[in-house]
Design brief:
heterodimer; A: Serine Threonine Protein Phosphatase 5, Tetratricopeptide repeat; 25 helices; flat; B: alpha+beta; Nucleotidyltransferase, domain 5; Substrate Binding Domain Of DNAk, Chain A, domain 1; 6-stranded mixed beta sheet; 27 strands; Hsp_70_fam (chain B); nucleotide-binding (chain B); phosphoprotein (chain B); Chaperone protein DnaK (chain B)
Chain lengths: 532, 566
């Protein structure tokens, strides 16, 4: 039963017809009476509308802008009052559109080939241009959604094909959007200005970002653009995230294939720096930097084959960048060539032995690959010489992951006192409390861990959760038991001095009770073991 | 048997019913359409609800509770005198009071109601609302989303055939945005979004903060009563800004007098952060509906806070058109709820209109994803029902085990928008056992069914051994059993609600006491003597004398209050 059968209409792109059909059918499949019938009907209706929308958009998104560029051509022809030529113009334009659409369809197949994966490391991610990291089964691909992304890409390509131009007096929304995208592209390509945050701040203050009519499509276009051109200073990523609320729209970003990279930028984790290249606007240098960023993205999305390609390209251009060497170390770790890691890290340090940020970067890479011991080792090397906030944070995190929770809490607590607004540490501590809770489930008698959880909630002001951490019956029993034991021992000692016979009697009674208790706990332990 | 429609609001509550001329609001015992959502305990340990209780917010702040809707479904306890109530129980008192108003109006018992909840309320909060109604003795067949209710109220007045519109609901404590489409007798919700912690109260609090900071008053030095006075001053200032373009706040603390003047420009600066917060839900709702602001034919404003001119201007700027506010923003939801009653009963006049709603949150479960070569990263959120899916809906996804010989599956049920489950809200979990097998060979279906009331049911079905397990999501208990209701009622039975017939006089006295508190010197003495006089007349127990004295006292108090109707 396809969607048109359910709606009982012919396949059409006319929204009014689709809506009328849905309304008619809704009376039969009323949501309150027939939930299953309603669901089927609704799904058919939604898909039909999407079909109609895409067919309408295909032509519309080009017409406005196209009109402007071909205006002169048109005008000349109109002036000549040669109607047949005007017609020809129009036909040419339409043909060109259809041709360009077809062209891109061919490109698609080419892309597919590249994705053939020779290493075992590539897997679930359906990949079109290297940076998509779809988290869902490719089988689940919604064709229509894919089409929408296609449309955006087409539109972006179309916009970028044309050079910058002066804004017209009365711009339509489409023209405003196109104009802004070109400004963005120009700023990015201007290597003299790309890395200066001030230029971006100016660009991002443009009124168009306040206009909700344009903002939504702008976001899609900007994200598609940045996929190919991700080399931007961290603060710019942060500003963009603020404007578009990316922090709260993780899953939407994941669909666009950039979420991991963006979240890395939003975190405080170290990333390859631009500092060594400041002021250098050589086009080779820029290309090198872009390779570096693409390595980062490839590593984040498990595309190790691609990462290797970019590494080779980058190495050819620059052999003395410590951050590149660290990235290579990360690559080795992820591809399990652990023996090479140490050598490459040492090389990085040799290049600039007093640069603590290189050490930090290496420690971070170790942390991300679960090499907590090594990370702590590296951190200690810096810590001995300098006290650095970020290093201590990382050390604390490592200790937590190694379940040395006491040490972790001590370090992170100190850091929180220095900087009480550090959201990252706060979040990490809460997650650690969560981990400790899970541990406690299988080891319920360890009071000190419960105390640790309480401490964490105190530090992070989680007063609601604090109330939840109560001693349960088991713990109370245990405490009473221990008190009982202590009192008995004291009494026994006193008796020894006063009345040895009674003491002996008391002692044997005590041992009996102890034996009973031990048997009891063995039974409950076995019982619990069988239960879980 | 009449079914009523109830709007249980953060600041005010209303009750309405359907007539052949359309929906009508039922006035309360004091003759007003609005009953403040405030509960107070009086000297006899009786419960007071409504305006009387609101007066006591200032005179007896430790015995009075308000704005508890925000805490529905949480464990927060309110200690009022010798009682300790949950937000649910407080709401049940309000609902009971409305029920009694309706019963007095109809002269017969009322047993069923349709109650409104914010569209953004999660499962736990909706269940709590249902329970509050049960405690009040009402059966709730249907919960209706507030913006949907308002939209219905608006939709019926529409003459055009196809319209898209947005409902902008800024109430006392919550902000809801809904986008709806009306065509061919179908009212369709396209998307909803909101902020559960943004409302008119926050604007009031912003004024208070500004006042306190600009006058360098130490927050710790203000006692409860003074806080209430400050709050009232801020409220009145807000209204003055709306009516006249400027307002004042003044208070005397420990002998020192402070006052400040605020005009519209300054107000806009003070609340600029709050205004920015309004944008995100709007953007999200538009994106989920695939609409742009210019595609909307109208924007409807509901919720008392939309009376602020700043809101009207922000909305006008954003959408390029003046918003519609010809429906009383306080009453629209209750009227809509009454219409929903009629729709439910397929009342003849409305048999043509069909309503479809959507699910406000994404619902899913926790999965592990492969990161190459048998390594798995766990804790990812896998959506099963995306937000803004039309309801009722039922979706099933097939999952598999990830290790060899795995015999336990834990299905965590989560709600939210984050990628990792730890950042989402956990609603519950299901555990099933599967026979040991190679990794990935044991498969099972997880089905999420979200019914028309927004209640979620999860079913897991193991494919190999056919085992099925079902869970209706409940954090606290779900629908109460008869025994549980009786138990709760028994606990509450000794708590009497103050008799209706003496409400008016009670209100007068409470008002007088409050004014007494707020005044100084001669004015205070004068009020004191008025109250004394009235209480004397009450003790004489002559009804006619009392009525006469009450009328006089009312006039006198109104004069003293000034001309702002609070």
């Amino acid at each position: 039963m396809n969607i048109w059968d359910i709606l009982e209409i012919e396949q059409t792109a006319d929204r009014a017809i689709i809506k009328k059909a849905y309304a008619r059918k809704l009376k039969i499949y009323h949501p309150e009476d027939d939930p299953e019938g309603f669901q089927k009907l609704r799904e058919a209706y939604d898909r039909a509308l999407k079909y109609a929308k895409i067919n309408a958009q295909r032509i519309e998104s080009y017409v406005e802008d196209n009109k402007l560029h071909n205006k002169n051509y048109f005008e000349n022809e109109i002036q000549n009052e040669d109607k047949s030529n005007v017609e020809k113009c129009r036909i040419t334009i339409v043909n060109r559109l259809e041709y360009s659409l077809d062209e891109d369809e061919y490109d698609e197949d080419e892309f597919d080939e590249d994705e053939y994966d020779e290493d075992e490391y590539d897997e679930d991610e359906y990949d079109e241009d290297g940076f998509d990291e779809d988290e869902y089964d490719e089988d689940e691909y919604d064709e229509l959604e894919y089409d929408e992304d296609e449309l955006i890409r087409h539109r972006l390509n179309f916009i970028l094909d044309y050079p910058h131009e002066q804004p017209v007096e009365e711009q339509t929304d489409e023209q405003k959007v196109n104009y802004f995208i070109r400004k963005l592209r120009n700023l990015y390509q201007d290597t003299l200005r790309r890395f200066d945050e001030k230029n971006w701040e100016e660009l991002l203050q443009d009124d168009i970002l306040e206009d909700l009519n344009c903002k939504l499509i702008l976001q899609d276009l900007i994200l598609t653009f940045l996929k190919e051109h991700p080399s931007l200073p961290r603060n710019i990523w942060r500003k963009l995230a603020e404007i578009f609320y990316w922090k709260e729209e993780e899953r939407f970003l994941a669909k666009k294939g950039l979420s991991r990279y963006i979240f890395k930028q939003l975190s405080n984790d170290p990333l390859p720096r631009y500092t060594y290249f400041e002021g250098n606007t050589d086009s080779d240098c820029i290309e090198y930097l872009e390779y570096r960023d693409k390595i980062v993205i490839s590593l984040l999305t498990y595309h190790y084959y691609k990462a290797n390609e970019y590494i080779e390209l980058a190495q050819k251009m620059n052999k003395k960048d410590p951050d590149l060497l660290c990235l290579i170390g990360a690559y080795y770790l992820k591809t399990k060539q652990n023996k090479k890691v140490k050598a490459v890290f040492l090389e990085a340090i040799k290049l600039n032995p007093y640069d603590w940020e290189t050490y930090l970067y290496q420690a971070q890479i170790m942390y991300e690959n679960k090499g907590y011991q090594e990370a702590v080792f590296i951190c200690n090397q810096i810590d001995d010489a300098l006290m650095k906030y970020e290093v201590r944070t990382l050390k604390g995190k490592c200790y937590a992951k190694m379940t040395s929770w006491r040490k972790a809490i001590d370090i992170l607590k100190q850091n929180m006192e220095i900087n009480p607004c550090d959201e990252e540490i706060k979040k990490f501590l809460i997650d650690t409390a969560h981990d400790i809770k899970i541990y406690l489930k299988s080891h319920p008698h360890k009071f000190k861990y419960r105390k640790m959880i309480k401490e964490i909630y105190c530090i992070t002001n989680q007063t609601e959760k604090l109330k939840e951490v109560k001693l349960d019956k088991e713990d109370k029993k245990k405490i009473i038991d221990r008190l009982f034991v202590i009192c008995s021992i004291l009494y026994f000692i006193r008796l020894l001095f006063v009345d040895p016979i009674r003491a002996a009697f008391f002692f044997s009674l005590f041992m009996l009770l102890l034996v009973i208790r031990v048997i009891q706990s063995i039974i409950t332990y076995q019982f619990r073991k069988n239960k879980s | 048997m009449v079914t009523i429609g109830i709007d249980l609001g953060t600041t005010n509550s209303l009750v309405a019913y359907w007539t052949e001329n359309g929906p009508q609001i039922i006035p309360n015992v004091l003759g007003s359409n609005l009953t403040p959502s405030v509960v107070s305990v009086d000297d006899n340990n009786d419960i007071l609800v409504g305006e009387v209780a609101r007066e006591r917010l200032i005179t007896h702040p430790h015995l009075t509770a308000s704005v508890f809707k925000r805490y529905m479904g949480t464990e927060k306890e309110y200690h009022l005198g010798k009682y300790s109530f949950s937000a649910e129980e407080l709401s049940s008192f309000v609902i009971k009071s409305l029920k009694e108003d309706a019963e007095a109006f109809f002269g017969e018992e009322v047993r069923e109601a349709v109650i409104s909840v914010p569209a953004y309320f999660n499962d736990v909060q909706r269940k709590a609302t249902k329970r509050a109604a049960e405690l009040a003795g009402l059966k709730v067949e249907r919960l209706i989303s507030e913006p949907t209710a308002a939209a219905i109220a608006y939709g019926l007045h529409q003459k055009e055939s196809e319209t898209s519109f947005m409902v902008f609901d800024l109430g006392g404590g919550t902000f809801d945005v809904s986008i709806l489409e009306l065509f061919e007798g179908v009212m369709e919700v396209r998307s909803i979004a909101g902020d559960n912690f943004l409302g008119g109260e926050d604007f009031t609090n912003a004024l208070i903060s500004y006042f306190v900071e600009s006058k360098n008053i130490e927050v710790g030095s203000i006692n409860e009563m003074e806080k209430s006075i400050l709050y009232k001053q801020a409220e009145m200032c807000k209204r003055a800004l709306a009516n006249e373009g400027k307002g004042r706040m003044e208070i005397t603390l420990k002998g020192e007098s402070y006052d400040v003047s605020i005009d519209r420009i300054l107000f806009e600066k003070i609340v600029s952060d709050l205004l920015i917060r309004l944008r995100h839900p709007i953007e999200r709702a538009l994106r989920d509906a695939s609409l742009k602001p210019k595609d909307l034919d109208a924007v409807i404003l509901i919720g008392g806070a939309t009376r602020m001119p700043i809101i009207k201007s922000v909305v006008s700027k954003m959408f390029g058109k003046l918003p519609f506010c010809n429906i009383n923003p306080d009453e629209a939801v209750a009227l809509g709820a009454a219409i929903q009653v009629a729709l439910k009963e397929r009342n003849e006049a409305l048999s043509e209109l069909i309503l479809t709603d959507v699910c406000p949150y994404t619902l899913g479960t926790g999965v592990a994803k492969s990161v190459g070569e048998k390594k798995y990263e766990s804790g990812f959120f896998f959506p099963i029902i995306e937000r803004n899916t039309p309801i009722p809906v039922s979706k099933v996804e097939r999952l598999a085990t990830i290790s060899d010989n795995q015999i336990h599956i834990n299905i965590g049920v989560y709600q939210g928008e984050s990628r990792m489950v730890k950042d989402n809200l956990k609603l519950g979990e299901l555990n099933i056992e599967v026979p040991p097998n190679k990794a990935g060979e044991e498969q099972f279906d997880v089905r999420y069914t979200y019914d028309i009331n927004g209640i979620l049911e999860v079913e897991v079905h193991s494919l190999s051994n056919g085992e099925r397990k079902r869970l209706v999501i409940e954090k606290n208990k779900g629908s109460m059993t008869k025994e549980e209701i009786e138990e709760r009622l028994y606990a509450l039975k000794d708590i009497k609600i103050h008799p209706r017939d003496r409400m008016e006089n009670k209100l007068l006295i409470a008002k007088g006491e409050r004014l007494y508190q707020e005044s100084l010197g001669e004015k205070r003495e004068y009020i004191g003597s008025l109250l004394q006089g009235f209480e004397h007349v009450m003790s004489l127990q002559d009804d006619r004398e009392i009525r006469h004295a009450a009328k006089k006292l009312k006039e006198q108090l109104e004069k003293l209050e000034g001309w702002y109707d609070y």
